[in-house]
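1st attempt posting a full record on here, be nice pls
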Amino acid sequence: MTGVGDSLLIRDGVALVMFAQEFGYSVDLHAAERLAGATRAGMATGARNPAGVEITPRPLVIEQDAPPIRVAGHALAGPVRVTIYAFGAVSIAYRIPLEGALEGLVELSSALVSPRDLRDDARQRVGALMTSLGPAITRPLAADAIEDYTVFVIRSLGAMPAGAALTADILGRPLLARILRAEPSSLSEEQVSDATSGSVSYGNGDLAVIDWNAALLVDPDPEATIAALELANTQLLELRFLDDSLDRSLQEAYDITLEGTDRPAILGGGVRRQTRRLARMQVDAAGLLQSVGNALKTYGDQHLARIHDTADRRLRLHDWERSVRIKLDALEAIYGKLRDAHHQRRSEILEWIIIALIATEIAFTLLGVH
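the predicted structure (as tokens):
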């Protein structure tokens, strides 16, 4: 089918530019709610979410004024939506109103590849949050890593063929690929096919096309899908953060192991401290992985499950999770070896003490010393 995307007009739309950033090990959302005077926001229920699928625990949402920033000639519209998750991450979402030809999104998408002004503003907002919510944050962390993702939301689209089911072909796959990949020029058939492969629909009048850099939704009721995509982008940030942290932990573990082998057996206090530190690393990483992985359970809701599964595949969340688990296993192996070596040294020390006591007793007996 020949696409008609170049002639389609956006009647009501918005680009949501999301920046996820790590700012602590965890957040007490009840305490943060009191400090910020904000509300907890859940996912919308209804025909799209009949089972009441929810982000657990429900994140805290704060609305702030939009900054005077323009992107490719587009002014921002308020409010800026700040979503704080219990597992210590925050997502800042900026709104850019959309109207006009669908093909106009190519220029905006290209401008959003490196939106330095928005990124800097997001960092400042996270820094301010760390200050205002300090008592509610466990082990605050101003991490450099930031993960951005853009969702083009079209609530109403004009010039649609009468009676036609909305598909990627109707919108025009080559155009969709250029929007999703932020590519001003034409893409190869292979790239077009890959960029538009993550398509999900609920009915004939809605469509979600999800890629690794951006997603495009044509949907009069997109809120649950937006929440799922924002969570997926935040999960990607957390998994990348965990992966980097475990790289550093593994290097530290190797260093601890080498230091431990150079220590005299009589000096066991340092080894005990090292094994405790390694155990803490494992518990922290495993706990964070559990929190991130269990934030959204889509059992019982096939549409949201497909949305999140598609985002999982396009963002390669499963690959990042597998990498984290492999490194956790490696850390466990190092911890186990160091712990066993410490126990062996203690046993050797006790054996030598017993031998020395026996030898002393024999010597005293032979010398007639009582």
